[in-house]
Amino acid sequence: MNRTRRIEALQDLEPTVEEFHASVIEGLSAPRKTLPCKFFYDERGSRLFDEICELPEYYPTRTELGILERHAGDIAALAGPRARLVEFGSGAGVKIRLLLRALREPAAYLPVEISRDHMLAANEGIAAKFPGLCIAPVCADYTQPFTLPELPGNEFRTTLGFFPGSTIGNFTRDEAISFLRVARNLLGKEALMIIGVDLVKDAGLLKAAYNDKAGVTAAFNLNLLRRINRELGGTFDLAAFRHEARWNETLERIEMHLVSMKRQQVAIGEKRFHFAEGETIHTESSHKYRIDGFRMLTREAGYEPVTVWTDDQELFSVHALRTA
Ligand SMILES: C[S@@+](CC[C@H](N)C(=O)[O-])C[C@H]1O[C@@H](n2cnc3c(N)ncnc32)[C@H](O)[C@@H]1O
Which residue segments constitute the domains of the chain, with CATH numbers given? Predict the structure, then answer.
């Protein structure tokens, strides 16, 4: 194996501040105020998310890691040698290491991530652990069109997509299907796709996971307002909003909201937004799935389910799919 450090030039499609501004104005102008969760992840937001992953209440990360540890060998066998590995929302790049260790001669690792500096720092750690691995980072919003970097001279035999963390749950069902269709076109025919999906379970356990006692999830949620103040010149008073996570039984999703604790007005540039006491900004949904329901969804998006693994308590699932 080539022992030299091989991080390719960044393909940088980071959303601009104008795009951030336009999304925020649109979301806050809606009759039910919303903000897109992809903007949680500035540098501080990414660090707070990593802290969430360590919380005792936040079962998804450790449960998914356990499943991946048990089945990394199975995934490697399904992928075959010289796989090009594409990870969507790669974050701190922890889970990918389990796959990189198990794969036979991985051809390249292509992380796709909106939080640029966090990804670049994670890549340094991966490069140190896997010398000679070709890393070709893409900073992009994966809900928008982008292409994967070409890597001339770096032949791959198969493609392995990886979308862990139940990040797919942030989409509605229709959005998840659209995303998976786009991903299928990016990955190409007969690619293997591995997706981590959180499962429907006891509401108490779910609510605790998103309302941790240490208040890290609250800080993560409120950080979005801090980011708007910093980058867009907003006037949000962070002390006048509080975090709330609700279980929506009908839609089987956790909803994160920021609740206005009083009647107030907030400015973003020229725009003024009015909040009634108790009015909320819906900042994130985390849809929970049943195994069969998720498999049906992937079929609609043009994938053939191969297998699914869960933990003993069936808290979380990891799906292996093939692009049709
Ligand atoms: C829930 S975290 C999961 C992180 C990590 N994959 C894990 O499993 O722990 C979601 C990750 O996806 C990234 N992300 C969220 N929305 C994105 C988007 N639209 N495009 C690209 N990356 C996105 C975030 O920056 C974050 O790193």
Answer: 31-55+204-287 (no CATH), 58-201+289-323 (3.40.50.150)
